[in-house]
Amino acid sequence: MSGIDDSLKQQICSYLNFSEGILPVRYLGVPLISKRLSCLDCSALLSRISEKFQNWQKRKVLSYAGRLQLIKSVILGIHIFWTNNYILPSKVLRKIDSLCSEFLWNRKIPLVSWNSVCQNKKQGDLGVFSARIWNQATAIKIMWLIHLKKDHLWVKWIHGNYLSHANVWQVQVKINDSWMWKQIIKMSDMLIGMLGSTENLTNLIDSCCVNGKIVVSAVYEKLNHSSQQVAWSATVWDSLHYPKHSFILWLVAHSRLLTQERLCRMNIINTNRCVLCSNQLETCQHLFFDCQYSASVWNKVMDWLKFNCRSCDWEHIIDWYSCRLRRNNFTEKLKRMALSVSVY
Ligand SMILES: [Zn+2]
After folding, report:
1. Distance between Cα 297 and ligand 1 center (Å)
2. N or C, where is the chain less crowded by C-beta within 10 Å?
3. Which residue range forms the structural domain that includes residue 244?
4. 213 C-alpha vs ligand 1 centroid, how far in Å?
């Protein structure tokens, strides 16, 4: 009803028996908005995530692995629904990541940085989706649909209004363009800058297309790719492990287990004495498996499995596992499991 006077507006409303609404309205849970998407417009998303966390927190004591599972299965679904539809303000994306991090580490000091947590398992980490990078991946999908001139009404509208023969990768925004369009172009410029050239960006997209359709999770993996891979990934994340055992083994592999040595360094406690043997300092190195007590447990487990590996230092054990025990047969999986259980 834009551009008409009030009396005509009222006539139309009474004729149709509708009342006039104002934007934003919520549609399928997300706001329909014609102007700038503010942090306030995203408050429904943030409070939905916080509520979930608070409810889980109240219900029972959760292990790290349990927390991780909830973040990956439930929270991801909520934020992906929003990030698939909008380029969210970076403040909101940072808030989602920080809510997830707080929940994972139970509001205590994070033992491993969130960037590491979001690296995939081959790189030795947890493979949680970062809200910020997921939003970049979905923005790429939007640009790609525009670039291919897909047969969607909104794509046609964009070509008619903003592009008129120009290319989505090179177009300059104009002052009167809509806020969302400016966000798309800003994101496109940022990604081209990050990847070095438009060609690199389109090559990346090409490599993520299956049967003519772009796979957002593949784009995400490419954007989140780091060449750094760790040899112990298969040892830590074997499918036979109990998830909570894997998580603790992962902390040990990163030397981030909260041993008394680390607690002393953080000024949380002031004495350090191994709880298993009471006569050495409690460090990761000592626990796995210099300590008399833990070494005897480890050796017994190895005897039971008729496996030659014996008590020795951690570096040696993890090297042995990473280099020699890489196959996927049941015996080797069981040997990996023996390590994760013993460490836990
Ligand atoms: Zn000890």
Report:
1. 12
2. N
3. 233-343
4. 56
What average pLDDT does the chain have? 89
Ligand 1 geometric centre to CA of 273 (Å): 8
Tell me the average pLDDT across 73-100. Answer: 88
Q: How far is the CA of 271 from the centre of ligand 1 (A)?
A: 14
Residue 227 banded pLDDT, cuts 50, 70, 90: low
Three-state secondary structure call for residue 181: helix
Residue 164 lies in a domain: yes
Q: Last residue of some domain: 223, 249, 277?
A: 223
Q: What is the distance in A from the centroid of ligand 1 to the CA of 290?
A: 7
Residue 31 domain flag: no
Q: Under a CB-based contact definition with an 8 Å cutoff, are residues 317 and 339 in contact?
A: yes
Is beta strand 213-214 parallel, antiparallel or unpaired with respect to 209-210? antiparallel
**Would 307 be classed as within a structural domain?**
yes
Q: What is the residue-wise DSSP string for 243-290? A: HHHHHHHHHHHTT----HHHHHHTTS-S----TTTSSS---HHIIIII
pTM: 0.82
Helices H, strands E: what count in the chain?
A: 18, 4
**Domain annotation covers residue 170:** yes
The number of domains in the chain is 3
Residues 108 and 143 reside in one and the same domain: no
* Distance (Å) from CA 259 to ligand 1 centroid: 12
Q: What is the DSSP letter of 31?
A: E
Of the candidates 77, 71, 78, 81, the one whose C-alpha atom is nearest the C-alpha of residue 247 is 71
- Helix, strand, coil: what percent of the chain each, to 5? 60, 5, 40
